[in-house]
Amino acid sequence: MTLSRDGVAAVIGRPIHHSLSPVIHGAWLEAAGLRNQYIALAPETPQAVWALLDSDTLLGCNVTAPYKEVVFDWARPRGVVIGPEAAATRSVNLVRLGDHPRAESTDGTGLLAAIREQAPHLDLAAATVVVLGAGGAGRAAVQAMTSGGATDIRVVNRTRDRALVLAEEQGAGVAGFGLDEVEVALTGSHLLINAASSLETLDLAGMSAGGAVMDMTYRPLETPLLARARARGLTPIDGLAMLIGQARPSFEVLFGQPAPEIDVRRLCLEALEAQG
Predict the structure, then answer these.
(1) What's the pLDDT tens digit per position in 38-78?
(2) Which among 216, 259, 266 is positioned nearest to 32, based on CA atoms?
(3) How far apart are CA 155 and CA 74, in angstroms?
(4) Among 21, 93, 156, 160, which has the minimal tally of Cβ within 10 Å of its Cβ?
(5) 111 in the Ramachandran plot: left (φ > 0), alpha (ψ -120 to 50) or beta?
(6) How far is 269 from 41, CA to CA, in rounded Å?
């Protein structure tokens, strides 16, 4: 396919064949009557990502693993305007190219949208939040929780020092724990956000009744962690809700108008079923 900046946007990552972003944005483009295209691209190296962004092939793109930090490093020396959330997390999931390029992160927006949709009873300002993982996704989760009003955030990471560094960066109200301290961190918590791998043996017994558990992945839609949360009477929040939540502001930035109000979640569930 020959690409031109007058109409094509993309999601870039590796692997990328599983991504539902083309399903979501394609449906919105069709509903909006726009002739643009939204495709998936899998550059093989960070250097290939930089070359793609420096070329005249795309009007913009979403970015997924493992390239969110790679794109942040691309943006800084080029004088690209970096949005506040991307700057705070050192991670980019949205780039608008052209005459006034901008690098942003809508991950936090998507996370908060998922919580509002699937756990509307949760009051973040009064909640103790545990974030599993201190990488880019973990930083985005902590930043989102802070902007959402949470003042008691506990970061748990396999390497305790990395959790402590993130906690120190974020300041008051954020504490760091090692994985061997996860049960201590979970005691009395109201929301658990998994921004790392799904932990098969994680004990949720210490969480407060009426709490919620979020898993950022959506393959499978109900992960083992979410299944255990549901079995304990906790509210599960799936990664598909976050994906759709971060896609809405992305669509507006890329295509210049709000995403149409259509049921893209149903289309995503159909795609997941078809893919097996």
Answers:
(1) 999 999 999 999 999 999 899 999 999 999 999 999 999 99
(2) 259
(3) 28
(4) 160
(5) alpha
(6) 22
**Range name among 104-108, 109-113, 137-141 with the lowest pLDDT average:** 137-141
Distance separating alpha carbons of residues 5 and 57, to the nearest angstrom = 5
Q: pTM of this prediction?
A: 0.93
> Tell me, what's the pLDDT at 197?
74
Within 8 A by CB and 6+ apart from 127, the residues are: 150, 152, 189, 190, 191
Angle subtended by helix axes 264-275 and 21-32, to nearest 10:
140
Cβ atoms < 10 Å from Cβ of 101: 16
CB atoms within 10 A of CB 55: 11
Of the residues 8, 49, 68, 259, only one is catalytic, namely: 68
Which residues, at least 6 apart from 42, have a Cβ–Cβ distance to it below 8 Å? 12, 13, 14, 15, 16, 17
Active site residue 214: no
Q: Specify whether the CB–CB gap between 274 and 247 falls below 8 A.
A: no
Q: What is the mean pLDDT of the chain?
A: 94
Place of tokens 């709490």: 211
* Token pair for 102: 């901008």
The mean per-residue pLDDT over the stretch 224-244 comes to 96
Which pLDDT does position 226 carry in this prediction?
95
